[in-house]
Structures are given as C-alpha cells and as structure tokens.
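Minutes, project check-in
Item: structure for the 340-residue chain
Input as provided by the requester:
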Amino acid sequence: MTSHRPRWKGRGPGVPRGLVPVLAAAAILLSACTGPTALPDSGTPGAPPSPTKDGPLRVAVISHGTAGDAFWNVVKNGAETAGEELGVQVEYNSDGDPGNQAKLVDNAVAQGVGGLVVSMANPEALKPSIDAAVRANIPVITINSGEDKSAEYGAITHIGQNEGIAGENAGRKFAELGKKKLLCVVHEAGNVGQAQRCEGARTGFGGQVETLQVDISNPTDAQSRIRGAVQTDGSIDAVLTLNSQVAANAVNAIGQVGSAAEVATFDLNTDVVAAIKSDQVLFAVDQQQYEQGYLPIVFLKLNRDNANVVGGGRPVLTGPDLIEKSNVDEVGQYVDRGTR
C-alpha cells in the first residue's frame, strides 16, 4: 500500500528563515540521544527466543498434508500469496505422521517464529508442542482440523469448515436426490475430522449409512475395497468419499462392477471438476481451503500490528460450498489457477 505524505514546498508561513537549520539540528540531536529500540529480553537462558514486533513477521504453517497433495498445495498457495501481499515471511512444512508434525512445530517454536498456523488431525499428538508455543507467547491459529480442541489448547482462532455441518449438507443432498443407502469412505485412520464428516452425513442423510476404512497411500487397495463393498451390497446407491483422490478410486470401482451407486466427494481438484461435468461425480463439498492458508496470515499480521483477534471465540468457517453441475464451470476456472 502506498503511503501519501504532504510535500513541503517551502518553509511555510510563520517560520523564520534562520530557525530552520536550528530545528533540523535539534531533531538530529534528539535522535542520537534516543538510540535504537531495545529488543525484548528472551527470558530464561536456553529458552526459545521471544517473538518480536521488529522487522517482518515470520509465520510457520505446518499441516498434516503429504507432499504433492493437491488439496494442501492450495492451502500453501493461499498462505504464500498472503505473505507476499502483506510482507510476511511464510514458511510452509507438512508431514502426515502426527509425531513428525509435532517435531516440525517444536522446531518452529525453538526458532522463535512470530506466529504458528497448524492443522490438528490428531490433536492429542500435537498438544505438548502447541502448549510449548503458547508458553513462548507465539500466537497460534489452527486450521482445517481440530476445531473442538483449538480454544482449549490456547489458539487465538480456528479457521476451517465445521466437519459435522459439512457432512450434514452432503448427507442431506444425497437424501434430496432420493438415495437410500450411503457408504462413507474414511481414508485416514485416527483423523477425527473424517469421523465427524461421516457422522454428519449420517445425520443429514437420515437413511442407512455404513463406513468403510481404506488407506489413501495405497490407491489400488482402496479401489479394491470400495469395489468389494458395492459388489457385496447391491443396495448401496450412494458413495461419499472424503478426498478428491479417493473419489477417482470410487468412480473406477463402481464402473468395474456395474454398480448403480453414484459418487460425491469432499474437496475439489481438476479431476473432480471434470468428473462433475461428465456426470461421474454428483457433487463436491468444497471447504475453500485457499482461505485456510490465506486468512491465518492476515489474522496474525493484524494481531501483531494492531492487537486484533477474530471470531469472538468461535471458529471462522470457510465452507461448505456445494459444487455441482450448475456452478462447476464458474468454480472450475479457479481450480485451474490453484485457488479453489
């Protein structure tokens, strides 16, 4: 943002000519006497350095995503774009293993970052590390997962979709389409958010709901398990996947056995957009994860520079938004550029 200051074209009225150099000299002397602003004391020897308001804000964004994951790439894009726009140094790291993710948080705390953004798919595993950040006076914002534990752990805000509400919307949409039996496919064991999605779908659907556990890191096995489920139970007429990659496995599995089941999914990528256009996927629950990367950087910048907090103790929701045949063309262009 450009700063506009008045440009003085002369001494101005009422300022004697001989007084101008005197005032300038006084200003220089005052500056010399004041000296540089002291940095905050880091506290106990050996403790992590305390965050400072001097210089650019440095924020560590640490997710439970895996390298190259299309979903988390959009989160990263949002965080880095906000950093570029606001002059914030953003350092993005991720690890799907809860223990390794906790170590990344510990490293960020030890380095004295000015803010921490973390997704909590496994809150208990991350609690000691987040506690350490809070003790070090590092403001924490949680994103995506862990809404229920965010405030308890000391985070100033949680940003993401409410998994239960999102699941209810998906289940309700299936019911409106006349489906009778729903299969909800969980792809990460121990991920509390995925369990909440399926429970929400059960509430919104109102009919029969079964869950199936697969491993996202083994797509061949995931596809085989989905194929086995719809082949064994021909009454399954709806399949809800919780990840865009798994949606492709479900579409393939259903096609292999000629099942009448139809697929919907959480999250968007270019393949899901194409599948909606070709009627292979009914709809996608879009949690608009670009906002989950972008907004925390804005909020942490405001917190440091203006002591602002957002949400009033409640989460800031980024979704859900249902993407279907009627609006997929409009949204698809943003998926192509990496912001949806």
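Outcome recorded: Residues 58-161+289-309 form a domain with the Rossmann fold fold (CATH 3.40.50.2300).
No further action items on this chain.
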